[in-house]
Amino acid sequence: MIPAMPAASAASSRTASVNALRVLSMGAVAVLILVAGVWGSWGTAQDVMLTKGKEQGTVKVTACGDDTCTGPFTPVSAGASKRASVVIGKSVAVRKGQTYDVIVKPGTEDVVRSGPAGILYAWVPLGGALLLASVVVAGGLRLTRVAWLLGGSGIALLTAAFGALQ
């Protein structure tokens, strides 16, 4: 015959299981959010950060539509060719009549901002993911110091990107 477990012990065992499940699931959600932020940033960041062999130059924005702006590309790197028109994504930091340092995405006529402003702008999705993950870590994992660190990092990244693009 198996002795019966005291009621208090069974309840604490159940609570421990629920807490472990909460920590595991919220930890997985936080990691998934951060991975998605890196994934969303890497598409542009790789072009801006790994510039060896890529065409570098400037674009003078001459026209803007709803989502994109266009202008002539003037090369500054060896092997880059002049183009009559390239496409740059329209954002609050791209204005008609301005000239920007850019890198041509390989195999396309699309360009992305280069230099510190381009690097920071490329990592903006990660900044948003850091802010969102901080909420999950604070509420779901109850790790307030880690949450403040994640949130502060996200705010710092977004603020630096905004300041660099102006």
Q: What does the model show?
A:
- Keywords: Membrane, Transmembrane, Transmembrane helix.
- The chain crosses the membrane at residues 21-42, 119-139, 146-165.
- The radius of gyration is 24 Å and the shape is elongated.
- β3 and β4 (83-89) form a beta hairpin.
- The longest helix has 43 residues, at 7-49.
- With 166 residues, the protein is α+β, with helices and mostly antiparallel strands.
- α1 packs antiparallel against α2 (115-122).
- The chain has helices at residues 7-49, 115-122, 124-141, 144-165, and strands at residues 56-60, 63-64, 68-75, 83-89, 99-104, 110-113.
List the helices and strands and how they pair.
Elements: H1 7-49, E1 56-60, E2 63-64, E3 68-75, E4 83-89, E5 99-104, E6 110-113, H2 115-122, H3 124-141, H4 144-165
Helix pairs in contact: 1-2, 1-3, 2-4, 3-4
Keywords: Membrane, Transmembrane, Transmembrane helix
Transmembrane segments: 21-42, 119-139, 146-165
Structural class: alpha+beta
Order of helices and strands: HEEEEEEHHH
Radius of gyration, CA atoms, in whole angstroms: 24 Å
Q: Distance N terminus to C terminus? A: 76 Å
* Lateral strand order in the biggest sheet: 1-3-4-6-5
Q: What general outline do the C-alpha atoms trace?
A: elongated
Main sheet properties? 5 strands, mixed, barrel
Keywords: Membrane, Transmembrane, Transmembrane helix
Transmembrane segments: 21-42, 119-139, 146-165
